[in-house]
Design brief:
alpha+beta, two-stranded antiparallel sheet, 13 helices, 50% helix, 13% strand
């Protein structure tokens, strides 16, 4: 009997398929088939529960078909009156006009990839061109002008060189921070923000950070020559320059300002020292690329506590705008003067403060007046004392906060062990105590 019911079920399926109404697209409506099969299944299940179970098991493929009909997008109707471009290959037909939106997505992706490739190449070319134009100078100044592997890149916009092997110099870090030409979204963001904020401008920045050896005879002072267009940015980003006062110098172009603690330091550094004359170097047309030149014994950011002697280093820092690839050697005179100034300050290189070639230089530290050295030392002692007092005060405040938190936690644990009535009385006493404190403060203010 069971085999007969199964046969009847198969005949019903064939009959439904044969008499299923056709749609305009040539596909049978799934809803009609499912409804008819559900009716047949119900009829067959009236005879026996065993037959009903078998029929239910056989209807699972149609339930799966219904699920597919829900998650499957509607079919594309290929009308016969299509007169656009069409490609046919065996059973496949491709009509480009039906994929206009997808074409826009693909074009956007290709544009982003092309921008990434050309932007990455432009940054790498600009960095390599500058290094190549200055490689011979670096080779003259350092026994190890670059690390193993040469120019190192971090991402596609930051490049580094590490140089060592020079008298009175521990190391030189050369950093090129270029604009993110490889990132279209970030590049557009910088462009729009630069239009909105007039004081903000993005450019390719080159920095040479020379660290003197601890044994070098370099004075404790802060001094800088800064382009006026960079004055606001450098004041916001360099805490060490807060030691200085801004002034003008008749020996420098009007576009530059001096930031110095005392005039004695400026007078000694702007003198003629052998082949070096900073006044002459800055008078030449380097204004498009020069940003700042600074000598400092302080960190760039204010320390939270006095620094130990092992972490105190003296730096000579040159900041430039990176020239274009076609004019990469334009900053060569500035970099040459930068290395000569390091010799002047440390008193090395065969010449120094007030000395010519072939004569031993005395260095900047020995050229300063005794009263200038005393003032410089007093200023640092005062700042170190303020930093130390601030650190102690912050530690005391943190200890008080921690103590109050422990006291509050202990009080909460004590109250949790009391009965409801006792907790209520304790809260009322605490409220009255707080009110008395508030009233006492108000009376003190009134007096």
């Amino acid at each position: 009997m069971f085999e007969n019911r199964i046969r009847t079920w198969e005949i019903a399926q064939m009959g439904i398929t044969r008499h299923m109404p056709s749609s305009g697209t040539g596909q049978a409506p799934i809803e009609y088939a499912l409804a008819s099969l559900s009716f047949c299944r119900s009829s067959l299940c009236l005879s026996s529960s065993t037959s009903c179970t078998a029929a239910a098991a056989m209807s699972s493929p149609f339930a799966f078909s219904k699920l597919l009909s829900v998650i499957t997008p509607p079919p594309v109707v290929l009308t016969a009156d299509y007169d656009g471009l069409e490609y046919r290959w065996r059973m496949l037909t491709f009509r480009p006009a039906l994929f206009q939106q997808e074409a826009l997505y693909l074009a956007a992706i290709l544009l982003y990839l092309a921008w990434f490739y050309f932007g990455k190449s432009a940054n790498l070319s600009r960095a390599n061109s500058w290094v190549d134009a200055h490689s011979s100078l670096y080779a003259e100044q350092f026994s190890k002008p670059a690390q193993a592997g040469g120019l190192t890149k971090d991402g596609h916009s930051d490049f580094f060189l590490f140089s060592t092997g020079r008298r009175a110099v521990a190391s030189l870090h050369t950093t090129l921070t270029l604009r993110p030409r490889h990132d279209l979204l970030q590049y557009v963001y910088q462009f729009v923000r630069g239009i909105i904020e007039l004081n903000l401008h993005y450019e390719d920045v080159l920095e040479l950070d020379l660290t003197f050896q601890d044994t070098a005879n370099v004075p404790d002072c802060v001094w800088a020559v800064v382009a006026k267009s960079e004055m606001k940015n450098i004041r916001d980003s360099r805490w060490d320059l807060s030691f200085t006062r801004t002034s003008e110098s008749p020996s420098l172009p009007p576009s530059l300002s001096i930031m110095s603690e005392y005039a004695d330091v400026t007078e000694n550094l702007l003198k003629q020292h052998g082949p070096l004359s900073l006044a002459q170097v800055f008078s030449e047309d380097h204004s498009p690329y020069f940003r700042s030149l600074s000598l400092t014994d302080q960190p760039r950011t204010r320390p939270l506590a006095p620094l130990p002697a092992s972490q105190r280093h003296k730096h000579l820092i040159l900041s430039l705008a990176v020239p274009p690839t076609s004019d990469a050697s334009a900053t060569l005179p500035l970099v040459t003067a930068f290395f000569q100034l390091a010799d002047v300050i440390a008193g090395t290189g065969g010449w120094g403060i007030g000395k010519g070639p072939g004569q031993k230089g005395v260095g900047l530290a020995q050229s300063l007046r005794p009263e200038t050295k005393t003032k410089l030392r007093t200023t640092r002692e005062k700042v170190e004392k303020e930093i130390k007092e601030e650190a102690v005060r912050e530690q005391r405040e943190e200890a008080e906060i921690e103590k109050a938190a422990k006291k509050k936690k202990a009080e909460e644990e004590r109250l949790s062990k009391l009965s409801a009535a006792e907790q209520k009385k304790a809260l009322e006493r605490e409220k009255k105590r707080a009110m008395r404190k508030t009233q006492g403060k108000m009376k003190g203010v009134g007096r």
